[in-house]
Amino acid sequence: MSAMKVCVLFRPLNSKELSEFGDAVSVQGINSESFIIKDEKEQEFDFTFDRVFYQGSEQADIYEFLALPIVQGALEAINGTIITYGQTGAGKTYSMEGPSIVDCESKKKGLLQRVVDGLFEAIMNSEKPSKYTIKLSMVAVSNSAEALQSLSSGIANRAVGETRILRLFLTKFGKLILVDLAGSEKVEKTGAEGKILEEAKTINQSLTALGKVINAMTSSTQGKPTHIPYRDSKLTRILQDALGGCSQTALLCCCSPSPSNSSESLSTLRFGARAKHIKASVHVSCKEDIDNIKDATVYPNVDESRERILAKLRERMTAEDVQLLEKLLVLEGIFFDPNSVDEIEEAYEDVTSRTISSLHKAVEELNTGVEKMRRENAALKTSLKASEEFYQHQLERRSLCLIL
Ligand SMILES: Nc1ncnc2c1ncn2[C@@H]1O[C@H](COP(=O)(O)OP(=O)(O)OP(=O)(O)O)[C@@H](O)[C@H]1O
């Protein structure tokens, strides 16, 4: 089984598509996993995914297949990520949030509401609900309604068109990330100008970076470690855990079934097909990590959490290096929440990369210095040789005079 669960959703035809093409569709279902799609030239392409949700599918079915195992995993300390991908208007936000986060008919609730409800329900039904704390980016929330209200107001404050990333942290347990990616269509098709064009370009850059990461992860390397360019964009950095770490990830590729959008749908499906090939082997270390987390004792206060993080760093570095790193973090003005292992790791990564680049700079300077000294040395040798020849010549002349 692939490490990433990849599903496809075909939303219902919208009124524009219906008026232009009637009820014509480019998709022909084979079964719940496979279908055929025709491009503009009527060429057929067949695809198979973990599950295909055709027009008229229930939001509850998508949640149960795609997200429920991730919610259950979060309670078992496995990080989870759910991503919706596809062109503008393909149904990403509808799948994630339904028509509205709060005040939503229960049948139409999206993945977000169902994940939050599912999480609180599982916690309330657990033997010891008090051992769980849920944080929404860093704000503690105590029930589903409070969480959804905060998410709803947070979402209302975001610009339309950008990628929305929602993070839910279960302190001491898993972290859940829900990502509603920005539209994946080509910039030209949006007809964007000015500020919107600039925004579209940034979106394209982060989607390109995501594509590059997935390509790097799925390229055959014949046993050689491949460089995965996670740091190329904020999006791929945030998704680093989801794509390469100890995590369960689900990707919902949202498509229009209309022939008018077949080329964009095909590009979304090809992206999904590529993501499906991310090897399960990148998750091999997961089991051990999860067992370690499960076995770990509960750390009730900040000092103990900090100690746990430092202990983790000590495993990789000498005590002296850890002390230096602590000092460096303060000097560099990198502040972090001592409760969050992720943040300290990010800070650690930042310091490491900065240290590496200063080392690179120092090596470059040294090389320049060495080169300069080499040139000076060569020049000295040449002038020494010239002096030797001069004196030799003088000596020979004097000897000649003496003989004469
Ligand atoms: N499964 C669905 N059932 C009914 N209506 C849907 C469904 N999916 C999408 N729609 C409708 O299609 C329209 C566009 O959907 P949506 O806003 O989710 O697109 P999107 O992919 O998030 O676009 P953008 O990238 O612009 O955010 C909305 O009016 C939404 O109500």
Automatic annotation (TrEMBL):
Domain Kinesin motor: 3-278
Keyword match Cell inner membrane: no
Keywords: ATP-binding, Coiled coil, Microtubule, Motor protein, Nucleotide-binding
Transmembrane intervals: none
Domain of life: Eukaryota
Entry keyword annotation includes Transit peptide: no
Residues the record lists as binding ATP: G86, Q87, T88, G89, A90, G91, K92, T93
Coiled-coil parts of chain: 356-383
Family from the record: Belongs to the TRAFAC class myosin-kinesin ATPase superfamily. Kinesin family.
Listed name of the protein: Kinesin-like protein
